[in-house]
Amino acid sequence: MSISGGKTISGAVQALTFSRRATVVGGLQIGIGVLLAGRMAYISVAENERYQLLSESNRVNLTLVPPRRGWLIDRNGKPIANNKTDFRVDLIPDRMRDKDKTVATLAELLSLNQEEIDRIDKELKQASSFQPVQVATGLDWEKFAAVSVRLPDLPGVSPRQGFSRFYPTGAAVGHLVGYVGIASAEEYKENPDPILVTPGYKIGKDGLEKTFEDSLQGKPGAKRVEVTARGKIVRELDTRPDIPGKPLQLALDADLQEYAARRLGPESGSVVVMDCQNGDILTMTSMPSFDPNSFSDGIGQTEYGMLRDDDHVPLRDKSLKGLFPPGSTIKPMVSLALLRGGIDPEETVSCPGGLRVGNRFFNCHSTHGSVNMKKANAQSCDTYFYKMALRVGYDSIALMARELGLGAKYDLPVASQSYGTVPDTQWIKKRHEREWAAFDTVNSSIGQGYFLSNPLQLCVMTARMASGRKLEPKLLFEQDRPAATPLDISPEHLSYVRDAMSEVVNGVGTARRARLPLENIQLGGKTGTAQVVSLKYGRGGRDVPWKFRDHGLFVCFAPVDNPRYAAAVVIQHGGGSSSAYPVARDVMTFIYDREKAMEKLAVLEESWGGTISERMDGQLAAYRAQKELEKAIAEGRVPPAQTEATGESSAAEVGQ
Amino acid sequence: MASFGFVVLYSAAGGSLTPWAGLHMVRFLVFLGMAIIFSRLKENFWKTIAFPVYIVVVIMLLGVELLGAVRGGSQRWLSLGFIRIQPSELMKPAIILAVARFYDLLPAGQIRTWGAIWPLLLLLSFPCALILMQPDLGTTITVVAGAMTVAFLAGLPMRLFIGGAAAIAVIAPLAYFFALEDYQQRRVTTFLNPENDPLGAGYHISQSKIAIGSGGIFGKGFLNGTQSHLDYLPEGHTDFVFATMAEEWGLMGGIAVLFGFFLLFRWGLGVAMKAKTRFSQLLAAGLSTTIFFYVAINLMMVMGLAPVVGIPLPFLSHGGSSMMTIMICIGILMAIDRHPGRRSGTFG
Q1: Alpha-carbon distance A206 to A181, whole Å?
Q2: Which residue ranges run through the membrane (chain B) (predicted)?
Q3: Which of A277, A499, B12, B252 has CB 3.0 to 4.6 Å from B237, enough for a Cys bridge?
Q4: Which among B171, B163, B165, B90 is positioned nearest to B131, based on CA atoms?
Q5: CA pair distance B255, B264, nearest whole angstrom
Q6: What DSSP element (H or E) covers A274?
Q7: DSSP A391
């Protein structure tokens, strides 16, 4: 059967066919050879650059070394925020294979609790590939080593030795310095710098840490290492050391700050102390606070929940953002306005226990009889100020208030500050669309009504009266600050008012127990009680629930004869000024005699249940237990009747 | 050529004789000895053993398949106690021998009849089926291509080949969906678009191209290849040995290797042209083309012109069986070169 038309093919033809076809084969071979040579030339010459880059990026792994953050130090060089060596473990979500197993292994090796594991799982789910997930920080060497040796079985786990932010005084500086934390996804989008996603790198999230981020952060170091395809490091190519951030020296006195924070004890309040020579803020504490160390390490759900739910608002900086009616603490300031308004300080007013203005009767807290300016300050007679303020008019008092720094926004490197209200005729028109009335003058003259200020403002007011200079509060330490300009207030008036304030403490005043336990140093001050609810519920003393109690205030300066320090203390719902001046007294004592002040604190802390961190730990444990209980009830494991009782008793405890 | 392979393997092992370079050289010398022995054998010997060898190798393949079935997986190796060989490799010269012998036996007048075709298909069907079952697509292709070349040279009508090519164009997509294993399918798709899957199946091609491309004209220098030394290039000592070489020796090294192969094939085809008998002609051409397929497919593969199929590069790749195959081919070629035969012999 022929398939080619029966053409006969001889051996010779076949041989010819062979050589012809062999030539074809050879030609094809050469063709393919040329194609290959061309292809190779194309890859290795034309695309050489591209492939060289790829090969380099294959080979070299650039690791950024987070820079050490600049320290925050106090006026004496004592660290407020420093860096401690830290063993930490992170997860790189990209490189992980079996997530659940890896996390379980780590949980066992590092003995993580369930809450931690939940957090890690949650973050792993949310994490974009670029974001490392922190497993644990502050590990001891044994645990760190336990993880390190098991690395080959744990892809995606990255143990590192680095530095973490440490705040030696913890909660005492929480509001002031803020805290650091891992950059958020938004922050990375805004500034896609790879250092932001390097494990262990933190940026300032609040307070001074945030404000001075640029100078504190420093420059990251870099380590170029040659790695194999499996990520094994072959050798280090070169290393560029990190440049640590610049230290920041604050005007603060760290010891005083810590003392003030501790002295506030279980109260919710603020202490501000200023240097009357240059406006340096020596203390600006607000308690309760959060421990910035917890935030920097990545705060747990429960701990954050506790801070959020606490009615003492530990998350708000009361020194700057807490607004209170200043109450009687502004009476010395009002006195200055009266003096400037031509009131003779010796002129007396009769106090029958209040004053009728129009159809309303304004109470004074006592019946003072015949009162002159000094007595009105010393015994805090409201009637005197009602009457005199009506005489000089309220706008001149508001003017004086502003001259002394009330209602002002200071030039401070802080994230935010509330500057409150100094009401006057203009303000009331704008804000409430009505005319200023006599009862407004009466209310405002004793720091009630619309009058609101923060504790720092009260301290500035006191410092300006004490020094006679237009001091500006300063947070940063600065050598040789030029002296502040004198106030446009007669020195005689100032001196009269300082005497009156001395009378409050050292004479027949309302705060005689505020005398310093020191010889030859006298304190001048002024008490204040800010009403929280209307008087018809009775004066907000100690026998009402915590949140209805009056705020206790006290402003002071020392020494009386040559003022050097000014302070303001505000105790939220303290039940009156008597909650505030003992704190001011002890803080002032600390400046002059640390030992004496510490002795006092030791006794107090014992009755409060320990130092700040001890109490916070206890609070956290109680909160956690309560949450557990609530959860148990929600799941029907415990009958709810029991819990209501528990809830009430714990609320009552908070109120104590 | 083999010495150069030795040098490259020396570098691939990070400047060490072990585990590849030393063994490579020893093997080469052993097989070179074998090739020299082969070269002493006369044409008639090869004629005589052509079909028996084919049958033996088919049986070996069958044996592999049975053992593989027992072990429940793909199985390419047959252990002969002292040496482990890959029968599918041996099939490459064996099929050439058998096909060349067949067309040698076929009277010239029948070359354009069905009688010239069905025995070829029969000869091919056993080994192809067995090797495909291993599964080893690359080797199957080489075996078929070798046999087809011999058939082509034997003078089968041209339209059969054109038709065959057309048929392959039709069958290839079908084969892709029905005959190929999953991983082989993936290799083909990623070949078409390797950047799609840089960490998966496209990794080989990408890394190989990076190795070749980053070498540039003169290469990174001996022992300085990072791709291969740091394990980015997989199989840097076997299938992708050319990339290892090109990274360190650059375009110059690559061209030198190509030129070396060019000389080899020119010699191979020259031997075929000079050969006096039909059997030795077909045999020589078939064998040298088989070596050519090794080289062409391997190089196309490492340069990203062909899908990744497991085909080593002659002389350079580390691997015993393939080197044995190559050296058998060379040995037979040398034998034909020595004894071109007498033209009158067959056609008397």
Answers
A1: 9
A2: 20-39, 51-70, 113-133, 139-156, 161-179, 249-269, 281-303, 315-336
A3: B12
A4: B90
A5: 14
A6: strand A269-275
A7: H
Higher pLDDT pick, B18 / A366: A366
Residue A592's nearest CA partner among A556, A558, A553 is A558
Q: Residues B122-158: pLDDT tens digits?
A: 888 888 888 777 767 777 888 888 888 888 887 777 7
Residues facing residue A84 across a β-bridge? A164
Question: Residues of B with CB below 8 A from A230's CB?
Answer: 231
DSSP string, B243-295: HHHHHHHHHHHHHHHHHHHHHHHHHHHHHHHH--SHHHHHHHHHHHHHHHHHH
Q: How far apart are CA A463 and CA A476, in angstroms?
A: 18
Question: What residues of chain A, 234 to 273, have a C-beta less than 8 Å from chain B?
Answer: 234
The angle subtended at Cα B50 by Cα B44 and Cα B52, nearest 5°, is: 120
Average pLDDT over residues A434-454: 88
Region of poorest pLDDT, from A352-366, A431-445, A621-635, B80-94: B80-94
Examine residue A288 and say whether the peptide bond preceding it is cis (omega within 30 degrees of 0): yes
Instruction: Inspect the interface and report whether the beta carbons of A25 and B153 lie closer than 8 Å.
Output: yes
The answer for residues whose C-beta is within 8 angstroms of residue B107's C-beta and 6 or more apart is none
Sequence-ordered alpha helix ranges (H) in A133-205: 141-149, 174-177, 185-190
CB distance A26–B265 less than 8 Å?
yes
pLDDT computed for residue B302 by the predictor: 82
Q: Check residue A644 and give its pLDDT.
A: 44
What's the gap between Cα A408 and its chain centre? 21
pLDDT at A502: 92
Cα separations (Å) of B265 from A30, A556, B258?
Answer: 9, 105, 11
Write down the H helix ranges in A42-191.
48-59, 99-109, 114-126, 141-149, 174-177, 185-190
Tokens encoding A515:
């005398």
Question: Please, which contacts does B202-208 make with residues 24 or more away whose CB atoms are closer than 8 Å?
Answer: B203/B234, B204/B234, B204/B235, B204/B240, B204/B308, B205/B304, B205/B308, B207/A58, B207/B232, B207/B233, B207/B234, B207/B243, B208/B233, B208/B240, B208/B243, B208/B302, B208/B303, B208/B304
pLDDT over threshold 50, residue A3: no
3-state DSSP assignment of residue B216: coil
* Most A CBs within 10 Å, among B158, B159, B199, B214, to test the A interface: B214
CA nearest A232 in B: which residue?
A: B230
pLDDT band (50, 70, 90) for residue A82: confident
Distance (Å, rounded) from C-alpha A113 to C-alpha A628? Answer: 14
Residues 6+ apart with CB under 8 A from A538: A544
Task: Determine the distance in angstroms separating the CA of A37 from the nearest CA of chain B, rounded to an integer.
Answer: 6
At residue A567, the pLDDT reads 94
For residues A87-107, average pLDDT = 79
**Confidence check: pLDDT of A72 > 50:** yes
Counting every residue written for chain B, the total comes to 348
C-alpha span between A166 and A459 (Å, rounded): 29
- Write the CB contacts of A100 (distance below 8 Å, at least 6 apart in sequence): none
Residue A618 to residues A264, A621, A623, Cα–Cα distance (Å): 17, 5, 9
Could you give the CA distance from residue B165 to residue B163 in angstroms, rounded to a whole number?
5
Residues comprising chain A, all counted: 656
- CB distance B250–A25 less than 8 Å? no
How near does any CA of chain A get to the CA of B144, in Å? Answer: 15
Per the structure block, which two tokens stand in for B259? 């030129």
Nearest by CB to residue B230, choosing from A1, A30, A59, is A59
Nearest C-alpha neighbor of B218 from the set A36, A226, A41, A39? A41
Listed residue (A376, A386, A345) closest to A495, CA to CA: A345
What burial class does residue B146 get, using C-beta atoms within 10 Å of its C-beta: 0-12 exposed, 13-18 middle, 19+ buried? Answer: buried
Highest mean pLDDT among A462-471, B61-70, B278-287: A462-471
